[in-house]
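Q: For a teaching session next week I want to show students how multiple molecules come together into a single three-dimensional assembly. I've collected the sequence lines for a complex. Could you give me the predicted structure tokens for the whole thing so I can convert them for display?
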Amino acid sequence: MKPSISSRVIFGVLAWIAALVMFFPILWMLITAFKTEGQAIAIPPLLIFPPTFESFLAATNNAGYILFAINSVVVSIGSTVLAIAIAFPAAYALAFFPGKRTEFTLMWMLSTKMLPAVGVLMPIYLGLKEAGLLDTRIGLVGIDTLMNLPIVVWMLYSFFKEIPGEILEAARVDGIGPRKQMVHLLLPLSGPGIASTALLSVILSWNEAFWSINVTASRAGTLAAYIARFSAPEGLFWAKLSAASVLAVAPILVFGSLTQRRLVRGLTFGAVK
Amino acid sequence: MSEAITKTGGLRVTGRSRGSRQVNTLPLLLPAVALLLLWSVLPLLRTLFYSFEHYNLMSPPAVLNGGLNYRYLFTDVSTWVAIENSVILVVGVLFASIVFGTLIALLLNNDFPGRNVARLMAIAPFFVMSPVAALIWKNLLLDPVSGLFGWLMMLVGLRPIAWFSTDPMTAVIIIYSWRWIPFATLILLTALQSLDTDQLEAARMDGAHGFARLRYIVLPHLGRPIAIVIMLESIFLLSAFAVIYTTTNGGPGDATTTLTYLIFIKALNDFSIGSASAAGVFAIVLANILAFFLIRAVSKNLQR
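A: Of course. Below is the structure for the complete assembly, covering every listed component.
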């Protein structure tokens, strides 16, 4: 008994409506970004208008914006490279040499993610201040690395678990040490897994707002902090703000769409695959 | 699989392999473990220590004042208002995420033209950073004068609502829901794709109707992922910050001041580190209670 054609059409239409409703605010931001400031606040809202790149030019022709965009790139890539470099050997050890404490170690790492950031805001803020790292890229890279480290370990661990242990075992029997095993076997074997892990880490750092807002000011802020502070002059510069926002979310929208299914693993600590 | 490794390894190089294994894994694990220890334990201890001090950055030095910060915390009305606001926010967004997230995931799991594009569109808001999400809604959509929704309401003869002054919490809940419904959709859709289609086919052959299949096969399958979404989202939403910072700053008054936001105000606006830390310890305890259940769920999965 196949579902009737009419019910399939109805459910298909409903699915499209749901998707369009969820996507609409992004679309509206995109449309507004191509308007002039006057058109952006016009009532009734303009749907048909000659698109202009004026707002994109104005938003990016601003030293602050460029600096914050560079900071976003440096911080998200820097923290991702560091997190993977630290997590890779740890995940290798946990996945291929499980011991009595393996499960405890994994669970403890997960539990550090549960710590509400605001609970340690003061010590981290004061610690960075004492170390002279307040409003520096290094400080923010450090925070993002540590913030994502548990997720990165877990995600790599779950990908490593899918690699047959016999391959590494054969190498070990032939006297190949752990360093060579990791570099020459594990790295190429788990390429796609590492790529998705890196992508998730970049997405999380790029979108991270709490620490960026609280421990940076005018020098090391990321785009998330830039846009959060941009909001101050109420209701002004909507088109410019939309253009700046489009540029800030576009790369992550693309990255996220590329690997949405694999991201689930990292986001749920392997509980949903 | 892991057992196979140790067994074959044990056969070839008995004794030595066991010893070398222990020597080998420590340096591999040490950087990650040491850094995470530093990151999680040290600041926690410092927060705990500050919470027993009268310490204001504007008027040092710090002096121990026993449990006074805690007594003020729990007798202060604003603490309870903040807790109530946190609960309203978390429950509101969770309700929307589960109801709409499940519905959208079920719809997107069907076969229809353009399914992949529709999925990407429905999940996209999750990848939009909070400050941007906040400003799209605050300015472009919900603004009573030039926002799209205000105009739509006027079209049907209603007065536009000034959301951020009359009903700010609802507005904040709407914005967070828009970001977190897609998260629920993404997780549940992934879970649905791992559902055994043979079972559904068998049920169909036996004459189970669409609703019966949904009620007795699909929804029970979603039970665990839904529980995981609830726990992950609660932990995140208890720490929700950026949307409130960008739109309402906790106001008007204390209408959208959640526990997280209250601690932020105490810490970086008032610089009263002692009382911010006492509230921080309280937030950590709350989060840990939630985390306990999540870790139990995940750990069950690890053993399978």
